[in-house]
# Entry
Amino acid sequence: MNAVDTNVLFYAHDSRETAKQAAAVSLIESLHDGALLWQVACEYLSASKKLEPFGYDRDQAWRDVRDLRLVWATILPSWESLDRAYGLLSKYSLSYWDAMLLGACLEGGVTRLFTEDFDAYPDVEGLEIINPFTDSR
# Structure
């Protein structure tokens, strides 16, 4: 199963970053075994406010999250994810929220996470981390 981080969803709607927008849209459309992480959905809904001056409003962000829920599996937070995140914090140099994201992926059976935020860690405990905005993909 594949998941995307908040930055991928954000760039899919950010017309200021045309190359990243094209890559994000292409990736999202190609993921037939996608997973929508609860944390990513919440972060995206909050971050999408930054796109309002460019014509992308709150209602559209909510519709887009609802649409993803129809085609991707939803991974909700669990106590096991929290425990996993604590272990990741101890083992790697991660922020709390990054550890929570990786913990949820690992607990939810995600095998690939697409994000631009983890270039230092191409693999965390079997979770492949791919930057979709680099040419080396």
Q: What stands out?
A: Helices lie at 6-11, 18-30, 38-47, 58-71, 79-91, 96-108. The two ends are 18 Å apart (CA to CA). The chain has one domain: 2-77+110-130.
